[in-house]
Specification:
The chain is mainly alpha-helical. Helices cover 76% and strands 0% of the residues.
């Protein structure tokens, strides 16, 4: 595909991580808004989102170890509300209590692709296991298996918990909720339990943003080492953290939050997550196209073809505005690389 295509693909992936940080930081504010309503909208939402990005910056400047500890804790905490709604639905079914009816919605290409693009955001990053290939034993079989099994397990949990939440929470409320799991649990277990779940959701989202920032900084540093980004991206601090990349990526995420601050929580979250999905989808589309060209799928070329069609469908589903934003941010990598190479000192 060429050097330029490779740069655009990897840079677009960095963009997806940075916009993901912005989107998930907004989700932190939305979850906390269930407990403290003033931070769930308006200036309060922006302050909490920016504060979350600031705290994540400090954590990542502490090095991979501190970021890793936070990630493990947040991941374990994340499972609690997901399993809680599933258990509550099972209990209700066992006791014969009524459940909310799923709101009937006309099916069509447009709503399916839009919903698919939003759903994809929760699964982007599944390919991160490939980063560990050079330090994994028997990586050619272990990494693909871990990727498929991990993604499948996550998808099952997300599907069950989402359907369970909709069975506990009226669709009208769910569509406008900043903390749907907390809103689903509160009427059954009480407001204290709902508030507790909202805080857990905020911590979980905080952990997700932490992983996105860590990944964005590490990939940015790799690009800088190759001369495709300014040398400031490869600067490290005393603990070996890519301080330059962390600060710049966090700063861009904060600017994205501020640039979209005129929207309410739901519209702000949807827009930023769609931009992030579009940026990540560039990698998936290019990989599918490369698989077709190189015929690496063996006797199953249809798989790569389906993946490419799916990617195109997700671009359409994200809408023209989010897609243009995603492509514009991706194309910004070209002048950045040109400037970086012009400023790069010539070795003698």
């Amino acid at each position: 595909c060429g050097e330029t295509a490779a740069l655009l693909t990897l840079w677009s992936y960095v963009v997806s991580q940075i916009t993901g940080v912005a989107g998930v930081a907004v989700a932190v504010a939305g979850a906390l808004g269930h407990v403290f309503p003033p931070v769930g909208a308006g200036p309060g939402l922006i302050v909490v989102a920016l504060g979350s990005i600031g705290m994540l910056t400090v954590v990542n400047l502490g090095g991979a170890r501190s970021a890793g500890v936070l990630q493990v804790i947040a991941t374990l905490i994340k499972i609690v509300p997901l399993l809680a709604v599933v258990v509550l639905v099972i209990i209700r079914l066992g006791t014969g209590q009524p459940l909310e009816r799923l709101e009937p919605t006309p099916l069509g290409i447009a709503p399916i692709t839009i919903a698919g693009a939003l759903m994809l955001f929760s699964l982007t990053g599944f390919e991160a296991a490939a980063v560990t290939a050079n330090v994994t034993r028997d990586s050619t079989s272990t990494v693909p298996m871990a990727t498929i099994a991990g993604t499948g397990f996550t998808a099952i949990i997300y599907l069950l918990s989402t359907v369970a939440a909709l069975m506990l929470l009226p669709s009208v409320i769910a569509a406008k909720s900043g903390a749907p799991f907390a809103d689903a649990i509160a009427p059954i277990l009480g407001p204290v339990a709902g508030a507790f779940v909202a805080v857990i959701a905020a911590v979980s989202a905080f952990g997700t943003a932490n992983a996105l920032l860590l990944f964005a900084a590490e990939i940015s540093r790799t690009l800088a080492v190759a001369g495709d980004l300014p040398s400031v991206f490869r600067r490290t601090n005393s603990v070996g953290a890519p301080a330059g990349a962390v600060l710049i990526c966090a700063g861009i995420a904060a600017l994205l939050v501020l640039a979209s601050s005129s929207k309410d929580f739901v519209r702000l979250y949807v827009f930023i997550t769609l931009v992030s999905t579009v940026a990540a989808q560039v990698l998936y589309a290019v990989c599918a196209g490369a698989a077709l060209k190189l015929r690496v799928t063996g006797r199953w070329p249809i798989l790569a073809f389906i993946a490419l069609l799916y990617s195109i469908g997700m671009f359409i589903g994200a809408g023209w505005k989010a897609t243009l934003w995603g492509f514009a941010l991706a194309l910004a990598g070209l002048p950045v690389r040109a400037l970086s190479r012009r400023l790069k000192p010539v070795s003698r």
